[in-house]
Design goal:
Elements lengths: L2 H28 L3 E2 L5 E6 L2 E4 L2 H18 L1 H18 L5 H22 L4 H25 L5 H31 L5
Antiparallel strand pairs: 1-2, 2-3
Helix pairs in contact: 1-2, 1-3, 2-3, 2-4, 2-5, 2-6, 3-4, 4-5, 5-6
Length: 188
């Protein structure tokens, strides 16, 4: 991606990444097919498998974090993780503030540590693997700290994995199209 275009896309990814946190914290308590008292609102992510409703936003956050790192670099990524953690802590409902902030911080750092060594050689796989690691860390920490239960951990991981899988597929197709276009192929 060219310099200025890449920076613009990176800044857009950074803003969206940070915004997924407060929006997700609101969604988990207010939007879903079922809302439990003193618990999350849930949605189906697979037949018979439910997850707290902010699962897709959390999965999107993991993918956007990878985009920020690819487009703006490691320092911007760490700054965005810290900013998102702070924003989450300031804006979250008291019931989810500790779980959300801790889950965001540690899952995004886990995603960062896995994605970084893989991204140059295996960009699509890096998104999948780092997203899976980040989603497991996020799900376990958030559910335990925010709601005192790991009841929905499988649904959380599956729902976040859908977002990582979609992003990896889009990245693969985009790179394939770009390579074909550069070679003057028919796929351009």
């Amino acid at each position: 991606m060219s310099g200025l275009h890449g920076k613009r896309c990176g800044l857009a990814a950074l803003v969206l990444f940070i915004l997924t946190i407060p929006v997700g914290n609101w969604v988990v308590l207010n939007v879903g097919t079922t809302c439990y008292p003193d618990g999350p609102c849930v949605i189906p992510v697979w037949p018979g498998l439910m997850s707290p409703s902010a699962v897709l936003l959390a999965g999107l956050a993991l993918v956007l974090r990878d985009a920020v790192q690819s487009l703006l670099g490691n320092r911007a990524t760490i700054a965005a993780i810290l900013c998102g953690t702070l924003l989450s802590g300031l804006l979250s409902d008291p019931a989810v503030v500790i779980g959300s902030a801790a889950a965001f911080l540690f899952s995004e750092l886990a995603d960062f540590l896995v994605y970084t060594p893989l991204r140059r050689r295996y960009p699509s796989s890096a998104i999948l693997v780092s997203g899976l690691v980040g989603s497991i860390v996020d799900s376990c920490i958030f559910l335990q700290l925010a709601f005192g239960s790991l009841e929905f951990v499988t649904g959380q991981v599956v729902g976040k994995f859908w977002m990582s899988l979609a992003a990896a597929a889009l990245l693969y197709l985009w790179r394939r199209r770009r390579a074909a276009h550069a070679e003057g192929g028919a796929f351009a």
